[in-house]
Amino acid sequence: MSYADLITNLLLFFVVLVTAANLSKSRMQQITKAMSGVEQQASLESIKKEIDAKIQAQRLQELVATKLQDDGLELSLNSGVVFDLGKAEIRTEFEPALNGMLQTLVPYSSKYTFAVEGHTDATQIMPGGPFATNWQLASERAIVVRGHLESLGVEPRRMRVEAYADTKPLPESELAGLSSVERDARLRRVVVRVY
């Protein structure tokens, strides 16, 4: 009887281990906070609060938005503001503000990993420009932002670049009530995901 109890307990222990192994850092931090009532130091939620405070203080709501997801903290840069249409160079007037936002992430680069994602709208690239497709534009914009992170001190091995072009649009709930021009502007974004 005691042997059967031991086997059952071991089985439950391994089930808990496997379940915990599949949880993201973000989800694990939320569970820890719910159980202990205390927010962990340098948690994704505390990083979000720090960035949100900077956004409010510098009035950059049009430039940057944050969202805490199960797969990490998303820092979404409005490409319609940060980049000229069809180009991948950051507009010079926004470089200081952008670097200020990205600088907030640098102290946490030893604990977290970063994915820089490039997104576009569905409008086709005009022929004769520097980019043949939306895929190239999305990836080049993500590479430029990744370069800024590296120049601020994030190690290259802690980052990766992902390009999605127009294949991962925002949920319809975030686009409801917007004109087609505003919708396209929202879809054009570079997301730095911290996980």
Concise overview:
By secondary structure, this protein is of the alpha+beta class.
Describe the protein's architecture and organization.
The chain has 195 residues and is α+β, with helices and mostly antiparallel strands. It has two domains: 2-36; 44-194, 60s Ribosomal Protein L30, Chain: A (2-Layer Sandwich), CATH 3.30.1330. Helix content is 47%, strand content 16%. It contains eight helices and five strands, in the order H-H-H-E-E-H-H-E-H-E-H-H-E. It has helices spanning 2-21, 25-36, 44-58, 79-82, 95-103, 134-152, 172-175, 180-187; strands at 64-69, 72-78, 114-119, 159-165, 189-194. Strands 1-2-5-3-4 form a five-stranded mixed β-sheet. A hairpin with a 2-residue loop joins strand 1 and strand 2 (72-78). It is elongated and about 75 Å long. The termini are far apart. The model has no long low-confidence stretch (mean pLDDT 88).
Number of domains: 2
Overall CATH class of the largest domain: Alpha Beta
Backbone shape: elongated
Reported by name, the CATH topology of the largest domain is 60s Ribosomal Protein L30, Chain: A
Q: What are the low-pLDDT stretches, counting only 5+ consecutive residues below 50?
A: none
Helix content percent band: 40-55%
Multimeric state of these chains? single chain
Task: Give the topology.
Blueprint: H1 2-21, H2 25-36, H3 44-58, E1 64-69, E2 72-78, H4 79-82, H5 95-103, E3 114-119, H6 134-152, E4 159-165, H7 172-175, H8 180-187, E5 189-194
Parallel strand pairs: 3-4
Antiparallel strand pairs: 1-2, 2-5, 3-5
